[in-house]
């Protein structure tokens, strides 16, 4: 006769949640949050020239590239089921007003025209509307005696958004955080016959430490001071709701929280408070940390990537801007999603 052990006990349990976790098929059937390549927007950095494809050192797998090379990557992106990109421009010339941002032959304008010609309605082309990549001082509006000129910046952003619309952009995304820019852009677009064009507003964009690799990629670091007078202070959440409300009132169709992972609580509050689609930007620093730690063998790249993206969607974002878009889409395809 087998001896009794301390494990021979009958627990009087009413609830056994583990029943739904033991079988992997059943576990997947009861998942509450599911990622899809259709959730992703892939950020891309466009530069002048031909056959240019230079990896960003702090962002492995992400490139500064000419339009011809970008088209090749867009084709790859579409083949993976990712149907949207957001374009950032790296101009050949910079000046105090960022005039290349709205130049008819600017890098973004050329990129949009090429992408729409190549892929038509199969690819959603979103354009970032900001000046930091285009000004020689690296701020998101003109500067006078060390002050950021809000209204002058708004006027230039209106010209920029309109030039993107004329080039064929599907969505414009003002990211500058100047007061009143969404309403002014909406009015400019409507007056020019682009009332159908959606605005994805960077509504709660924080002055974050997680933007460093992006500034390497876009060559957009401020040459003096910082952006804390216009980007949001990280401790503030109520202010984020106010910013979102103002952007919706001014005509934003989609609102964004940026960065994503340090502000999951803000994503959730925005989702619960407003009846509009919510986007979140899984920013360069969040991407770079996972890539660096994985290269050192400190964590599992794919698990960390998918856990991060799932958390962002679980918090309430239905649109995820992420440099992981292609990596995650490949993994989902291999899993049969």
Write up this protein.
This protein is of the alpha/beta class and 337 residues long. The protein has one domain: Aldolase class I (TIM Barrel, Alpha-Beta Barrel). The chain has eleven helices and twelve strands. Strands 1, 2, 3, 4, 5, 8, 9, 10, 11 and 12 form a ten-stranded mixed beta sheet that branches. Strand 10 (254-258), helix 8 (264-273) and strand 11 (278-282) form a beta-alpha-beta unit. The mean pLDDT is 93.
How many strands?
A: 12
Briefly, what CATH class? Answer: Alpha Beta
Kindly report how far apart the N and C termini lie.
51 Å
- Helicity range of the residues? 25-40%
Put simply, the count of helices is 11
Strand content: 15-25%
Number of domains: 1
Question: Gyration radius, to the nearest Å?
Answer: 22 Å
| CATH topology type | TIM Barrel
Largest sheet: 10 strands, mixed
Order of helices and strands: HEEEHEHEEEHEHEHHEHEHHEH
**Proper CATH architecture:** Alpha-Beta Barrel
Mean pLDDT, nearest integer? 93
Which terms summarize this structure?
single chain, 337 residues, alpha/beta, TIM Barrel, two-stranded antiparallel ribbon, 11 helices
Give a quick rundown of the structure.
The chain is an alpha/beta fold and 337 residues long. The chain has helices spanning 24-29, 67-79, 107-119, 150-167, 181-191, 212-218, 238-250, 264-273, 284-295, 301-315, 325-334, and strands spanning 40-47, 53-56, 59-65, 84-90, 124-129, 143-144, 147-148, 171-174, 200-205, 254-258, 278-282, 319-322. The chain has a single domain (34-334), classed as TIM Barrel.
């Amino acid at each position: 006769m087998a001896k009794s052990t301390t494990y021979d006990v009958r627990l009087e349990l009413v609830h056994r949640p583990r029943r739904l976790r033991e079988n992997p098929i059943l576990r997947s059937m009861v998942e509450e949050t599911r990622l899809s390549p259709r959730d992703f927007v892939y950020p891309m950095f466009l530069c002048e020239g031909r056959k240019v494809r230079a990896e960003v050192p702090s962002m492995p797998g992400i490139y500064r590239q000419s339009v011809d090379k970008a088209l090749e990557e867009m084709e790859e992106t579409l083949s993976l089921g990712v149907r949207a990109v957001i374009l950032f421009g790296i101009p050949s010339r910079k000046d105090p007003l960022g005039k290349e941002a709205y130049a008819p032959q600017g890098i973004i304008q050329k990129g949009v025209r090429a992408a729409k010609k190549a892929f038509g309605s199969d690819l959603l082309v979103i354009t970032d509307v900001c000046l930091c990549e285009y000004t020689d001082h690296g701020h998101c509006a003109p500067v006078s005696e060390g002050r950021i000129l809000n209204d002058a910046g708004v006027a230039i952003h209106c010209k920029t958004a309109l030039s993107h619309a004329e080039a064929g952009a599907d969505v414009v995304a003002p990211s500058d955080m100047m007061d009143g820019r969404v309403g002014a852009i909406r009015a400019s677009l409507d007056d020019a016959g682009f009332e159908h064009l959606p605005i994805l507003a960077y509504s709660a964009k924080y002055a974050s430490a997680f933007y460093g690799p992006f500034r390497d990629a876009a060559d957009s670091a401020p040459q003096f001071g910082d952006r804390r007078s216009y980007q949001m202070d990280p401790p503030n959440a109520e202010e984020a709701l106010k910013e979102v409300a103002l952007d919706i009132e001014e005509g934003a169709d989609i609102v964004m929280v940026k960065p994503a992972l340090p502000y999951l609580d803000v994503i959730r509050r925005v989702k619960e408070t407003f009846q509009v689609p919510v986007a979140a930007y899984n920013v360069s620093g969040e991407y770079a940390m996972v890539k660096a730690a994985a290269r050192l063998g400190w964590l599992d790249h794919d698990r960390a990537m998918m856990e991060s993206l799932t958390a962002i969607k679980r918090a309430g974002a239905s649109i995820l801007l992420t440099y992981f878009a292609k990596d995650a889409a490949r993994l989902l395809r291999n899993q049969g999603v």
